[in-house]
Structure formats: structure tokens, C-alpha cells
Design brief:
Length: 112
């Protein structure tokens, strides 16, 4: 756990969140500022800063991908988008790697 990391606080239970899925290696919870009717964040329980760090930890990466799949299954999502923002220029504001799972409306392309 990283000191002063919002998502580590959620993992530890010190910060409340609406949990959607919980496994040994990953946690999924509702985004507090949703950009779609369904907007869930999936994070590794281990603190990793961004997708580059996640790529260096195959176990954590597998847990996040499995968490994304579990969220889609549990919420019965037929179509959804998964996004990783890496770095402030891409919109990353919490520096604990997280996947956004977005669904519930048409998601145009290209994004943003």
C-alpha cells in the first residue's frame, strides 16, 4: 500500500466505496464521477502506478483483466469499453493503475 493513495485507502477499507467485485488480487468499485450509466473502476490490490508498472507484474495484470471480465459478467454487460489512462496528459488523476469499465450508452469512436 502506498501512503496517501486514495485507491490503496479503498483497498484497505479506510475509504468507503461501492464495491462491485472483490477477488484476491483485484477490486472493482463504482466511479464517484461516472461518465456513463455504468462506470466501474477495476484496480489491482497491490499499488502499481500505471499500466507500465502493471505490465511488469503478470499476476496483478491477470487479476485486473479477470476483474474486468467478472464485472461485465456480474453486471450482465453485453457491450462495454475498457480504458486505462496513463499519465496526467491522458487524464490519469489517481496514480494507482485502474481500468475504467464504461457501459450503458452508445460510446462513440474516436473517444475524447
Amino acid at each position: 500500500m502506498a501512503e496517501n493513495c486514495l485507491f490503496c485507502g479503498i483497498v484497505s477499507g479506510d475509504v468507503p466505496a461501492t464495491v462491485v467485485h472483490d477477488s484476491d488480487g483485484a477490486l472493482a468499485f463504482a466511479d464517484v464521477t461516472p461518465k456513463a450509466p455504468t462506470h466501474v473502476l477495476v484496480i489491482p490490490k497491490k499499488h502499481l502506478t500505471d499500466i507500465g508498472d502493471l505490465a511488469s507484474d503478470p499476476e496483478a495484470a491477470a487479476a485486473v483483466v479477470a476483474g474486468i471480465s467478472a464485472v461485465a459478467r456480474e453486471l450482465k454487460l453485453e457491450s462495454y469499453r475498457t480504458v486505462f489512462n496513463t499519465g496526467p496528459g491522458a487524464g490519469q488523476t489517481v496514480f494507482h493503475v485502474h481500468a475504467h469499465v464504461l457501459a450503458g450508452r452508445d460510446l462513440g469512436w474516436p473517444p475524447g
